[in-house]
UniProtKB/TrEMBL annotation:
This is Uncharacterized protein. Keywords: Isomerase. The keyword Magnesium does not apply. One of its GO terms (molecular function) is triose-phosphate isomerase activity.
Length: 242
C-alpha cells in the first residue's frame, strides 16, 4: 500500500532541507528516506522540500514525492540559470514553496507562476499522473498583511513564517499565538489550509500549531541539523497521537 492511501490525517509536516550540507546529495536521500519511513509508520504526510538539483535523485532513490524549494516564472527557452517549472516537474517534484523569506519574489510573479502551474504541471509530470497527484504550491508570508493579500491568489497552501523567528528556538506558535489564530481565520474565509513555520522544534510547538487550527508545520534546522533527524521528527509527532 502506498503512502497516500495510508494517510489518516490531513496534518502535514514539511521538512525544508534548504542548502544545508546535511540535506543535499546523498544526505538528501537519507533524510528523504527518514521522511518516507516515518510517514508510513505514523500514517502522516511528511514532505521533503529539496533543492532543485536533488529532485531527481530523491525521487529515483526513494518512494517519496519531493517538493522543491523554489521555481521561477520563465517558460522553457532562452532563460539561462533560472529554475524552470517544466524541468522540476519532469524531474519528479510534486510541489514547490514560493516567496520564502530567504527567497522573496514580487506578488505579480507569484500570480504568474500559479497560472503556469495550472497549465503545465500535471500534463508533464508522469509521477503525478501515476499517483493521482497534482503539482501544488505553498506561498510563504512574512506578515499577516502579506497573508491577507496573497490568500486572494488561491495557492494550495499559505505559510505564515515571521522571519525574525526562522532558525531560532522560540516557535511562532508560542511567541505569536494571536497572530497564528488570526492567520487561521483569514485562511478559513478562503477555505485555504494554513501552514505555520519559524522556530518549530518540539512536539509541543507542533501540537500548539494544530490546536490553533494550522493544517501543518514547515520545519528545517531543528530536523536537518539534528544529530538524529529520525528521533527529532518522532519527537515532533509524539503529542499528535499518530
Amino acid at each position: 500500500m502506498g503512502l497516500t492511501a495510508m494517510i489518516k490525517s490531513n496534518f502535514k509536516i514539511f521538512v525544508n532541507f534548504k542548502t544545508y550540507p546535511q540535506g543535499r546529495g546523498m544526505e538528501a536521500v537519507r533524510l528523504a528516506r527518514i521522511c518516507q519511513k516515518l510517514g508510513e509508520e505514523k500514517k502522516m504526510t511528511i514532505i521533503p522540500v529539496v533543492q532543485a538539483v536533488d529532485i531527481y535523485r530523491v525521487r529515483k532513490e526513494t518512494e517519496v514525492s519531493p517538493w522543491v524549494q523554489h521555481i521561477d516564472w520563465q517558460e522553457s527557452g532562452q532563460h539561462t540559470g533560472w529554475i524552470n517549472l517544466e524541468a522540476v516537474v519532469e524531474a519528479g517534484a510534486v510541489g514547490t514553496l514560493l516567496n520564502h523569506s530567504e527567497h522573496r519574489i514580487p506578488p505579480g510573479k507569484i500570480r504568474q507562476i500559479l497560472k503556469r502551474v495550472a497549465v503545465v504541471a500535471v500534463a508533464g509530470n508522469r509521477f503525478a499522473r501515476q499517483e493521482g497527484r497534482t503539482f501544488q504550491v505553498m506561498v510563504c508570508c512574512r506578515t499577516l498583511g502579506q497573508l491577507e493579500r496573497l490568500v486572494k491568489l488561491k495557492p494550495d497552501f499559505l505559510a505564515y513564517e515571521p522571519p525574525e523567528l526562522i532558525g531560532g528556538t522560540v516557535s511562532v506558535s508560542r511567541e505569536k499565538p494571536r497572530a497564528v489564530e488570526k492567520a487561521v481565520r483569514i485562511c478559513r474565509r478562503y477555505d485555504m489550509p494554513l501552514i505555520v513555520g519559524a522556530g518549530i522544534h518540539s512536539g509541543k510547538d507542533v501540537l500548539l500549531a494544530k490546536k490553533m487550527g494550522a493544517m501543518g508545520v514547515l520545519v528545517s534546522s531543528a530536523v536537518v541539523l539534528s544529530e538524529d533527524p529520525e528521533e527529532k521528527i518522532k519527537e515532533m509527532l509524539t503529542l499528535l497521537h499518530c
